[in-house]
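hey
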């Protein structure tokens, strides 16, 4: 099956004095960016009963290279997850809020068809591990670990070698993965509808799930 309907959280930005509204938005399934007076940004995300982030929450943090979060201990957001955004990713978070400003509510049902897309199989950094190499050897496809298909860095890191066009060499013209049953763990782990998925679609296909980015607006107004 290649088509999915994903319920993705809607990003909203709030000033700290509206923290109660932000918490209500998150408890209803959305994601919030709290823009602090000094323009730093704290994320507010929901957690399950075990205190674990939702999958799409985890991928939002991954997209901005944020490994840690903490639980809010008091006030209207008590129990929710929060994390301070690194300076270099503040623009990305504000852009998510801008993109989602055209969508009402807290959650958006989005239909995505991977076989009509293939965006995440372009310009990606697919790191391979021992399990991937063992899977290929076991299937008699040791050639997949050869220089034609992978890069080996001096530090030992092994990654898929993409074509000069930016396309994965295993992506077929029909947008199917030619090694689907043997694909790397990192490809298996990729989540449809995550911020990484939305970003790949925007960068590779120019499909933005919401309001145009500010740069596009500038160009349109020029
Ligand atoms: S970018 Fe998203 S919709 Fe497109 S192929 Fe990848 S997971 Fe599927
Ligand atoms: S190995 Fe397959 S799933 Fe992974 S990037 Fe290449 S085409 Fe996509």
């Amino acid at each position: 099956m290649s088509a999915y309907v994903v319920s993705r959280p809607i990003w909203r930005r709030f000033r700290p004095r509206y923290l109660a509204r932000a918490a209500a938005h998150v408890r209803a399934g959305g994601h919030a960016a709290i823009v602090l007076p000094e323009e730093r940004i704290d994320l507010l995300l929901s957690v399950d009963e075990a205190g674990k982030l939702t999958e799409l929450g985890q991928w939002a943090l991954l997209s901005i290279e944020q490994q840690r979060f903490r639980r809010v201990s008091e006030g209207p957001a008590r129990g929710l997850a929060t994390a301070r955004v690194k300076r270099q990713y503040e623009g990305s978070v504000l852009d998510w809020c801008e993109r989602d400003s055209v969508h009402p509510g807290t959650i958006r049902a989005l239909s995505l068809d991977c076989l009509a897309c293939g965006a995440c199989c372009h310009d990606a950094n697919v790191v391979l591990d021992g399990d991937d190499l063992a899977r290929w050897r076991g299937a008699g496809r040791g050639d997949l670990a050869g220089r034609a298909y992978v890069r080996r860095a001096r530090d030992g890191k092994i990654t898929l070698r993409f074509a000069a066009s930016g396309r994965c060499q295993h992506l077929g013209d029909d947008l199917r993965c030619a090694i689907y049953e043997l694909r790397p763990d990192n490809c298996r782990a990729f989540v449809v509808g995550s911020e990484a998925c939305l970003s790949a679609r925007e960068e590779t296909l120019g499909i933005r799930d919401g309001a145009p980015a500010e740069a596009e607006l500038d160009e349109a107004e020029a």
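The pocket of iron/sulfur cluster (ligand 2) is lined by residues 121, 124, 126, 168, 170-171, 177, 179, 183-184, 187 (CB under 6 Å). Residues 25 and 106 are 6 Å apart (CA to CA).
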